[in-house]
Every structure is written in C-alpha cells, then in structure tokens.
Amino acid sequence: MTTDSKERSRSCRGGDGVPQRVLVVDDEKHIRDILASVLPSFGLEVTPCENAREALLHPMLRAFHFIITDHSMPGMNGIDLTKRLRESLPFTVLI
Description:
The chain is α/β, with parallel strands linked by helices. Helices cover 37% and strands 19% of the residues.
C-alpha cells in the first residue's frame, strides 16, 4: 500500500478506526463491481445491491454511513429511493 492509499484509508475510517460502510445501489453489475473494487482503497467497506427494493430491505440498512445510488433503475429510481431513505436515515450521506 502506498503512502497516498494509506492516507485515503485513514481518512474514511471512523473515530474508532472501523471502516465506514457504503451501500452501492445500481442495476448494472459492472458499476457495482467497479465501486466495490475502488472504494476499499479509501478504507470503505462496500456492500452492493441490485435495486432499490433490495436496498430498502437490507437487514443492516441503518448501519451504512453512505449510500450511493444510480439515478435510472427499473422499478424505483434513485431519486425515489433517496426520498424514502431520507425519511428514515436523516444523517446518512446519500449520493
């Protein structure tokens, strides 16, 4: 691990040194795979979901620090998902 990646890794850890958790919601597998391979280098723990329904039903939904969602997905789109999540997770960062 290079010095830069060590710095990035430290910057995304909570005060207790535990990696912050990211839920990635995207219907395109290659996008989920790219984010799942890149974000850990920043010290983030990534969980992928295929769609909004899967994300909303995730048993650990409240444990995520960040949620990254695609805008255009079949069924519920990213905007509607974000609105639903904002009601129940007011302090989670939604991207």
